[in-house]
Amino acid sequence: MGRRAFAMLMAAGLALSGCSDSTGPEIFAISGTWTSVDFPDAQFSMTVVETARAVEGAGHRLQDEEAVAFRVYGANAGQRASLLLDFEEESDINFEGEFSRGDENGTRLEGMLFGGGYAGEAVTFQRAE
Hints:
This protein is mostly beta strands and 129 residues long. The protein contains 1 helix and 8 strands; from the N terminus they run αββββββββ. Strands 1-2-3-4-5-6-7-8 form an 8-stranded antiparallel beta barrel. β4 and β5 form a beta hairpin. The longest helix is centred in the first third of the chain and has 15 residues, at 3-17. It is globular. 22% of the residues are buried.
């Protein structure tokens, strides 16, 4: 095989190796503003940023016309996220959920709330794209 043919074969191999595997799971970023959707007890809104899979941010819960602020700490594993909603003078709430593609309204994070009066209540957060 000539040098030119070998070089073309190597270039093609490198180009193909750079392509993503379309059969693998989709990896989601969590940075942005998330709002609960149709949650009957309260409305949650939080803005978070992600650095090396660590998540930080702040938000508020609107319940009975009273807004209560909280800090957000957690981790993003690409398809799943685990968050702690850290309230100053109330019990903290843990969220465990999975990402999914929503309709034209953006990405969803669906999971459950534990603590702060919640015992596995289903909640969906949505981030508008």
